[in-house]
Design goal:
The chain starts with 15 loop residues before the first helix and ends with a helix. The chain has one domain. The chain is of the alpha+beta class and 83 residues long. The chain has three helices and two strands; from the N terminus they run αββαα. A two-stranded antiparallel sheet has the order 1-2.
Length: 83
């Protein structure tokens, strides 16, 4: 078992062995899940939305809100057999 100490500011340093095993780096996000009397720490190596921004090309299609609404309306009408 690995133990860490809570500081007076409510901070905990995650031991190096745990950081290495989990692949935690500065900026890694950790969720605290409280279940009854237990606290579960959950982490993910998934990128944030900000990190994903621009990673998928949009194919050069630029539509206004009105054009998107029209396309959605057309698709709904087609799906309902109204077109």
């Amino acid at each position: 078992m690995t133990v860490a100490t809570l500081t007076s500011k409510g901070q905990v340093t995650i031991p190096a062995s745990v950081r290495e095993k989990c692949g935690l780096k500065p900026g890694s996000r950790i969720d605290f899940v409280v279940q009854s009397d237990d606290v579960i720490l959950m982490y993910t190596n998934l990128p944030t939305l900000a990190e994903l921004y621009g990673s998928i090309p949009n194919g050069g299609i630029h539509l206004s809100i009105e054009e998107m609404n029209d396309a959605i309306g057309d698709a709904v009408a087609e799906g309902m057999g109204l077109s």
